[in-house]
Design goal:
By secondary structure, this protein is mainly beta. Helix content is 4%, strand content 48%.
Length: 371
C-alpha cells in the first residue's frame, strides 16, 4: 500500500509540474532604452540583442549567463525608432529595421564579446508603410521585412552585410497589417508566411531569385492575427489571433504551402507574439496584459495543451515579442516599458520507469559567461 501511495504521489507531481518556466535572477532586466520592441538570440545562444523605439540606445546587446539566463549589457547603438531585429544564421551579422523611415541596417558581431558595429545601410524598405518585424531565411541568403502594407525581400551578402532588393519586392499585402503583424520562413526556406491585422494568412513560395509567388488558396481565411510561427519540423503553423484571443494550429503542406486548421485553443486577452521552441516541445504566446502563456506540443499530431502553471507573470503592460533561445533553455519577452523578462525552461524528463524520472532544469554553460 505504501508503494502505491508513493507512486501516485510521483505521478501527481510529474503531472502538475511539467513543463514550467522560472524567472531568471534579476528579471525583468532594463533594456537600457524605452518602448522595447523586438529581440533575437545569437545562433550560439551566448548573446541577446533587443531594439528600443525611443531614446538613443536603440540596438542593445546583452551577454547571457548560461547557468540561469541573467543578462549583462555589452554595448548599445543609436538607430532611431528601431523596430525588428534578427541574427543571420551564421551569427556574424545582425539586421535591424526602423519603423520610420522604413529602412533596415546591418551590423557586424564581435564573436568574442558580442558587441555590434555598424556594417552597411540603411536600405529603404516597403512602399510607404512602417517597418516592423524582420527575419533571415534559414540559409541566410534572404532577409524579409514586414511592413504595414507589404513585405520587402532582400538578397544578402553575408560577408559585407550589403542588401540587394529582390525582384518584385516589395510585395503588397491586401488588407495590410499593423506594427505587430509577423512573418516567418518555413524551415526549408521554400515558403514565407505572413499574418495581417485585418484577418487572413498569406503564404508565398520563395523563388530562387528571392521573388515571391502566392500559393494556391492564399490568403487563407482567418481572424485578425499578429504573431505566428511554423513548427521546427515544418508540419504545423500556429497563429495568435487577437479577436477572439486564441491560438489556431494549422497543418502545413510542405509541398504546396497550403494550410488547414486542426485546433483552436484559448489564450490570454491581447495575444501578440508567438514562438515555437526550437526543440518543438513548446509554444509561447505573449500578450498586452503582462503575462506569458505556455503550451505543450503533442509530438505526434501537433496539438497544443495549456501548461497548468500558465499564465506566467512578465513585466507589466504590453509584450510585443517572445522568443526561445536556440537551445530551448531560455525564453525572452520584450516589454514596451523598456524591460526584458527572461525565463529558464524547466521540465520533467521521463526515463524508462517512474523510478528513473528526474527533475531537470535546462542550464548549460554558455561561452563561459557568468554574472
Amino acid at each position: 500500500m505504501k508503494k502505491i501511495i508513493v507512486l501516485c504521489s510521483i505521478i501527481n507531481f510529474l503531472h502538475t509540474q511539467e513543463p514550467s518556466l522560472i524567472p531568471s535572477p534579476g528579471s525583468p532586466f532594463s533594456a537600457v532604452g524605452t518602448f522595447t520592441f523586438d529581440l533575437s538570440f545569437a545562433p550560439n545562444g551566448c548573446f541577446l540583442t533587443v531594439t528600443n523605439l525611443f531614446g538613443i540606445d536603440n540596438v542593445v546587446t546583452f551577454a547571457i549567463n548560461g547557468a540561469n539566463g541573467a543578462l549583462t549589457p555589452v554595448n548599445s547603438l543609436t538607430l532611431g525608432l528601431a523596430g525588428g531585429v534578427d541574427y543571420h544564421p551564421q551569427g556574424r551579422i545582425v539586421a535591424a529595421s526602423q519603423i520610420i523611415p522604413s529602412q533596415v541596417t546591418t551590423y557586424s558581431v564581435d564573436q568574442t564579446t558580442g558587441a555590434l558595429t555598424l556594417l552597411d545601410g540603411p536600405f529603404a524598405t516597403g512602399s510607404g508603410g512602417i517597418s516592423g518585424f524582420i527575419e533571415f531565411s534559414p540559409d541566410g541568403s534572404l532577409l524579409a521585412v514586414k511592413n504595414t502594407t507589404d513585405i520587402s525581400i532582400f538578397l544578402v551578402n553575408a560577408n559585407t552585410g550589403t542588401l540587394f532588393t529582390a525582384p518584385g519586392s516589395p510585395v503588397i499585402l491586401p488588407g495590410g497589417g499593423n506594427l505587430f503583424s509577423a512573418l516567418t520562413f518555413s524551415p526549408d526556406g521554400k515558403f514565407l508566411i505572413s499574418s495581417v491585422s485585418t484577418g487572413g494568412i498569406f503564404v508565398f513560395e520563395v523563388n530562387p531569385d528571392g521573388s515571391l509567388t502566392s500559393v494556391s488558396g492564399s490568403p487563407f481565411l482567418g481572424n485578425p492575427s499578429t504573431g505566428l510561427d511554423i513548427s521546427p519540423d515544418g508540419k504545423f503553423l500556429a497563429v495568435a489571433e487577437t479577436a477572439p484571443a486564441q491560438v489556431v494550429v494549422y497543418s502545413f503542406d510542405s509541398s504546396s504551402g497550403a494550410i488547414s486548421p486542426i485546433q483552436t485553443i484559448s489564450t490570454q486577452p491581447g495575444a501578440i507574439s508567438l514562438d515555437y521552441s526550437p526543440d518543438g516541445r513548446f509554444v509561447a504566446v505573449s500578450d498586452s496584459i503582462g503575462t506569458l502563456t505556455l503550451f505543450q506540443v503533442e509530438q505526434t499530431n501537433g496539438m497544443l495543451s495549456t501548461d497548468p502553471n500558465s499564465p506566467y507573470t512578465t513585466a507589466a503592460g504590453s509584450n510585443p515579442a517572445v522568443l526561445f533561445s536556440p537551445s530551448s533553455f531560455f525564453t525572452g519577452v520584450t516589454n514596451l516599458g523598456g524591460l526584458i523578462s527572461m525565463f529558464q525552461v524547466v521540465k520533467i524528463m521521463f526515463e524508462n520507469s517512474l523510478s528513473q524520472a528526474i527533475f531537470t532544469k535546462y542550464s548549460p554553460l554558455c561561452c563561459g559567461v557568468t554574472n
